[in-house]
From TrEMBL:
Location in the cell: Cell membrane
CDD domains found in the cross-reference section: MFS_ShiA_like
Organism: Agrococcus jejuensis
Major facilitator superfamily (MFS) profile domain location: 20-456
Function field: May be a proton symporter involved in the uptake of osmolytes such as proline and glycine betaine.
Protein name: Putative proline/betaine transporter
Length: 466
């Protein structure tokens, strides 16, 4: 009896289920909130505020280019935070990534614009720098949150637990855009352009404080604790990944590819497409109201929605994203990660081929397109927090999964909005080429999934190659 108590204590889970779920969920919700308020501002206000000397299309492309800077930073962040996540632990690294993202976001809300005399060059340069820092933080955030959830999960429930950090994406999106809508209702367009856009960035400070409070109360995950106990901490995790797990790194990068392309087409691109004037007359009137010149030679027609109306449509679509993120967990446990994701990827291929009839069918078709797209997004995004980490052994799991996730962002997310706008313009305002781009991305992911092994039954606490 004297030995019973210590044994029980040693086997007790380090973190309670509620603490694990809440800490992984709130952290990614805050991180994605920060990320999305930039995405929304990059379409709605940054073109005119930070790139005023260019025409409308060039303004938008310049703004989207700074949006893409974060995706270049994300692999660097995954290497930096992944190194420390595999060396000193998940908890401390998660706190550092949250601070990096949060401070950069608040500082964006304090920046002068290029309309301020003397800041014509410095303002967009500082905006790009802060965006780079956002990318660094998010590069380390996702993998740490995924490991926090899955390394504390009971047997047979890793994919289910893994959906909770994934749920932070739709929650962050809804929170960010709800705040933008509230500001739009409260302020005049002139006030929103002058100072209202700063409010969501400054409010991030409150959210970061809450996230830090929760994460500082965490205890290290059982899997990393065992790595330390076995003296199997790797001195250079990145080197080990490239030497022993490069195949899994390539697989993970391409498995995530379609998910990234789908998400940024459904959010950033559709917001651009949906709120662009449908006729030259509407575009000319909008330019005149904003005090900007209108060039009919560069005009590309969109769907003609008011900004606030289309944001509501996106929020409705993202509700389906959240619901089917949770649905994806049990499906991935039942059918395995590989076959569940392969089926969803095939459906995304079909969805891309339907963009012209859906977006060309009026309000009902547009709403159906958003619901279908975000439903597929939830189904493909939900299992990733389990699937990608399961590809790698415990002592390099933070680095491996973070690098795969964020390398995919470079080839999938970073160019998605920019390429989509270019394809949209090349097609004269038709979404045909954009839909084909999505289908091609999904086809690549589908092929990689079909030649990969399922990871559902992998030993999650070992340090051998997956």
């Amino acid at each position: 009896m004297a030995d019973a108590s210590p044994t029980t204590t040693a086997e007790k889970p380090a973190n309670s289920r509620g603490r694990v779920i809440f800490a992984s969920l709130i952290g990614t919700s805050i991180e994605f909130y920060d990320f999305y308020i930039y995405a929304t501002a990059a379409v709605l206000v940054f073109p005119a505020l930070f790139f005023p000397a260019e025409n409308e299309t060039a303004q938008l492309l310049s703004s989207l280019a700074t949006f893409g800077v974060a995706f270049v930073a994300r692999p660097i962040g995954s290497i930096l935070f992944g190194h420390f996540g595999d060396r000193i632990g998940r908890k401390t690294t998660l706190v550092a990534s949250l601070l990096t993202m949060g401070i950069a976001t608040v500082l964006i809300g304090c920046l002068p614009t290029a309309l301020t005399p003397g800041w014509e060059i410095a303002a967009p340069a500082l905006l790009a720098l802060m965006r780079f820092c956002q990318g660094l933080g998010l590069g380390g955030e996702w993998s740490g949150a995924a490991l926090l959830a899955t390394e504390n999960a009971p047997a047979g429930k890793r994919a289910i637990y893994g959906t909770f950090p994934q749920l932070g994406a739709p929650i962050g999106f809804i929170l960010a855009n709800t705040i933008f809508i509230a500001i739009t209702y409260t302020l005049t367009p002139e006030q929103f352009q002058q100072f209202g856009w700063r409010i969501p960035f400054l409010l991030s400070a409150i959210l970061v404080a809450v996230g830090l409070y929760v994460r500082l109360k965490l205890i290290e995950t059982p899997a990393f604790t065992k790595v330390v106990e076995r003296n199997e901490v790797v001195k250079v995790p990145l080197g080990r990944v490239f030497k022993h797990n490069w195949v899994q790194l390539i697989q993970g990068t391409l498995i995530m590819f379609a998910t990234y392309v789908l998400f940024y087409l459904m959010t950033t691109f559709t917001l651009t497409f949906g709120t662009r004037a449908a006729t030259e007359e509407q575009a000319a009137a909008a330019a005149e109201a904003a005090g900007q010149p209108f060039n009919p030679d560069t005009f590309v027609p969109g769907l003609g929605f008011q900004r606030i109306d289309f944001l509501w449509l996106l929020i409705i679509g993202v509700v389906f994203f959240g619901i089917f993120t949770l649905v994806a967990g049990p499906l991935a446990e039942r059918f395995g990660r590989k076959w569940m994701l392969a089926g969803v990827s095939a459906l995304i291929v079909v969805f891309g081929l339907l963009w012209v009839p859906l977006f060309g069918s009026g309000f009902v078709g547009i709403m159906l397109a958003l619901i279908l797209g975000f439903t597929l997004m939830g189904l493909t995004f939900g299992p990733m927090a389990a699937f990608l980490p399961e590809l790698f052994p415990a002592n390099v799991r933070y680095t491996g999964s973070a690098l795969a996730y964020n390398l995919s962002s470079v080839i999938g997310a970073a160019p998605a909005s920019f390429v989509a706008v270019a394809l949209w313009g090349a097609a004269g305002g038709s979404p045909l080429l954009v839909g084909l781009y999505l289908s091609a991305a999904a086809a690549i992911t589908l092929v990689v999934l079909l030649v990969s092994k399922d990871t559902r039954d992998n030993d999650y606490v070992n340090t051998t190659s997956a």
